[in-house]
Amino acid sequence: MGICDGRVVIITGAGRGLGRAHALAFAAEGAKVVVNDVGASLTGEGHDLTPAAEVVAEIKSLGGDAIVNDDDVSDWDGAGRMIKQAIDTFGHLDTLVCNAGIVRDRMIVNMSVDEWDAVMKVHLRGMFCPVRQAVDYWRAMSKAGTPIGARVVTTSSGAGLFGSVSQANYSAAKAGIASFTIVAAAELDRYGVKINGIAPSARSRMTEEAFADMMKKPDSGFDAMDPANVSPVVVWLGSSACEISGRMFETAGGELSVADGWQHGQPFNKGARYEPAEIGAVVADLIREAPKPAPVYGAN
């Protein structure tokens, strides 16, 4: 018996890296898996069914059940087809894991609007479209009186929570995913949908070049950056055992923590309108009393 026996799970971007590890982990826990991947390059070009097909073949060789889907998750109709394929093939849908992503790393002064838009499209639109399409299905079930235990897992990043030099587009997109997650949790709980996010650190096409030393596989011992280390957290969040919603988890190797987002600072209230010349002294006091922000990745 697995923690996800009988559940139907869609994982986007599941042909390689973290998505592949998630697909294998869900299947090992009894889930039927829709392996979505367009097989694009790291920067989003191209289309190749091979990575997704290889993951499906691996799951089946281990006795699991899985199917390939190569729809573009940032396309509204494509996301709808993916949701429909899961329901038509396996009879229902329980869990959606939004993992697909690309990078177009560039310093802000050199970044083009196309590089900005491409990253936003895959990360943000590519999360919203599947979630919105799945929610239509779950909401209809809920209104019909059918109890559901739907789960959504989004993928943010340390770059989204704290920022990362040369990744303003990626960081902004991942921050948007984190904000979306807490709003969706507040809105969708009434329908039986729990949604949480992860900010993982693991070896992938996105990280093994940018952080080569950190991501290097050790010659022996525990491989902390193995993407499979992240997947147990995702499987639990995608299971009926998870009853929390609206939280963001940082996970790397054997470490797991709850990331605490923006909080209201202690205010100073003058009780009247400020003069511009007064602001500097007030801000200095507020900054002195406030906790220091986490440093931006890559900043000196």
Describe the structure.
The structure is a single chain. The protein is α/β, with parallel strands linked by helices and 300 residues long. It has one domain: 3-Layer(aba) Sandwich (Rossmann fold), CATH 3.40.50.720. It is built from 9 helices and 8 strands. The chain has helices spanning 17-28, 50-61, 76-90, 113-143, 158-162, 168-188, 212-215, 231-237, 279-289, and strands at 8-11, 32-36, 65-69, 95-97, 150-155, 193-201, 248-252, 255-259. An 8-stranded mixed beta sheet has the order 3-2-1-4-5-6-7-8, sandwiched between helices. The protein is globular, with a radius of gyration of 21 Å. The chain starts with 7 loop residues before the first strand and ends in an 11-residue tail after the last helix. The model has no long low-confidence stretch (mean pLDDT 92).
Query: What class would the helix/strand composition place it in?
Result: alpha/beta
**So, the CATH homologous superfamily?**
NAD(P)-binding Rossmann-like Domain
Number of domains: 1
* Number of strand elements: 8
Shape: globular
Strand order of the largest sheet: 3-2-1-4-5-6-7-8
Ends apart, CA distance between termini: 50 Å
Amount of helix = 25-40%
CATH class: Alpha Beta
Descriptors for this entry?
single chain, 9 helices, alpha/beta, 300 residues, Rossmann fold, eight-stranded mixed beta sheet, globular
